Amino acid sequence: MNQSFPHPDGGPVRATLAHRAARAKRVMRAALCAAVATLVALPLAGFAPAAHAEKADRDKPLNIEADNMSYDDLNQKNVFTGHVVATKGTIIIRADRVDVTQDPQGYQYATGTSSGNSLSYFRQKRDNVNEYIEGNAVRIDYDGKNDFTKLTTRAVVRRLQSLTTVQDEVRGSVITYDGQKDFYTASAGKDVAGPGNPSGRVRAMLAPRSGGAAPLNGAPATLAPSTTIQGTPQQ
User: Which residues fall in a coiled-coil region (predicted)?
Assistant: First the structure.
């Protein structure tokens, strides 16, 4: 027996059903957006600490000691002479003369020069390790905006472990060091020519990066006489 039931087709009922369906879609859409936001936020949170490593030297104030100082207002330049020592965070520059300028964005630039047999000096700590990059040259240019250093004429750069042990050493006419990427380059020149290097080629000493022997772990081996070797031992 077939029995039919009346189907309501009034406006208020249809409106209620449509309202519930729309609300359900909104709830599902909000939940989906929240889930996607969570998935996106987790990787960013995981990588965030790496973006806040020790790259803070360029944001530190520049402090300078010298015998004399002059200020060129026209060129916006400070000139320091006489046993100059400039520090900026972990950066140290020593030279006979240091010229300092600053761009409209506030980034500072320093050029250290020395004369005679003396050389200018540069040092900066590497990020997250107890290592330093130090170098000497007649002229040293530091770019505070890009954390970039250029050493010119009779240049030598060393990578130090704990300020005491030389790990790498590079000699050349011009050496550049990129502090943001921990990357440096060297080029040859006549100013580094000598009896053993008449063409002034780049010279480098690079220590191996491999560590020492692996630690001895685990229980000692058990020794037992062989059951397969035959004959009398040879003396």
Answer: none
